[in-house]
From TrEMBL:
The keyword Cell wall biogenesis/degradation does not apply. It comes from Larkinella bovis. The keyword Hydrolase does not apply. InterPro entries: EmrE-like, Small_drug/metabolite_transptr, Small_multidrug_res. This is Guanidinium exporter. The chain crosses the membrane at residues 33-50, 57-78, 84-102.
Amino acid sequence: MSWFFLVLAGLFEVVWASFMKQSAGFTRLFPSLITVVTMLASFGLLALAMRTLPLGTAYSIWTGIGAIGAFLVGILFFGESLTVTRFLAALLIVAGLVLMKFSSTD
């Protein structure tokens, strides 16, 4: 269950980061509320995952899911550019996540 909690926490991180951008510096109510609620959910699920997963593994996977997810949301929904350099950078993050998962004993 810890890995399930961790992946779900990472997905909530993508949601809160996306809505934080839409909140315009917390000046728009609805996106701000979604940001806060999903942020709390993300932190709560991360805490549950950390009950059994090592700190370094859990935190790096959580932030990696958030980084790649935010990268994709930025491209798909906010019109951010997809350059070769940005793609390679994202690929390196994914490679790091895979290595971190395989290095974990849990």
